Amino acid sequence: MLEIIDVQRRYRGGRGTGPVNLRVAPGEVLGVVGPNGAGKTTLFDALCGVNEFQSGTVRLDGRQLGRRLPAEACGFLPEHSRLFPQLTARQACRFEAAMRRLDLDDTALEEQLDRFGCAGFRDTEVRHLSQGMTRRLGIACAFLGTPQVVVLDEPLNGLDVEGVLVFRRALADYLAGGGMALMSSHILSVLDELCERVVLLKDGLVAATVDVRNGGAERAYLEVFGQ
């Protein structure tokens, strides 16, 4: 179980997020949505250690972790790629493993690249990859080492049909093994399909939590934001 308790990060002028409380169960995808400026990116970045929460705590399986997930337990796919452009796909995967202190050999890295359809450009520098290729590589990095939690910010951006299918299969396998995911998407029907619950953020706070197992993400969004 992932528990995010009273976390907060606010900037001058009041923008940011929190206090926010969230829980994610093993095998669950929790959707997180809101308009631009709602605090979603701030929440995801701080949870994964890009920035820091100013208060609150994070627990994983009952363990008190402080104000972020540990690197080895968290795979992160930000909305905009942060892969170093001068690295090849193979090197980017190896760098991700090193940063998260994952004990993976070259064979495991090659298998990961192959699994996510990146084998054909493993020796190509990131700066020369298409948007879809870069997204596939980012997803491969996020799922590297089967972390306990993956945080996926707009994972379908730039993917072709084959890429979407690869992602959905990988996510299903990951959840079947007890993994936990937080995911945002501007395509609300995707959240209806992949999530049990969706959290709607407004001004950095949880405005509503909706059970979407029978659909309803779009309806709830319209009710909260009136658009």
Automatic annotation (TrEMBL):
SUPFAM superfamilies the UniProt entry points to: P-loop containing nucleoside triphosphate hydrolases (SSF52540)
UniProt keyword Transport present: yes
In what residue span(s) does the ABC transporter domain sit?
2-224
Stored SMART domains:
AAA
Q: What is this protein called?
A: ABC transporter ATP-binding protein
- State the similarity comment: Belongs to the ABC transporter superfamily.
Q: Which organism is it from?
A: Actinomyces ruminis
Task: Spell out the coiled coil positions from the record.
Answer: none
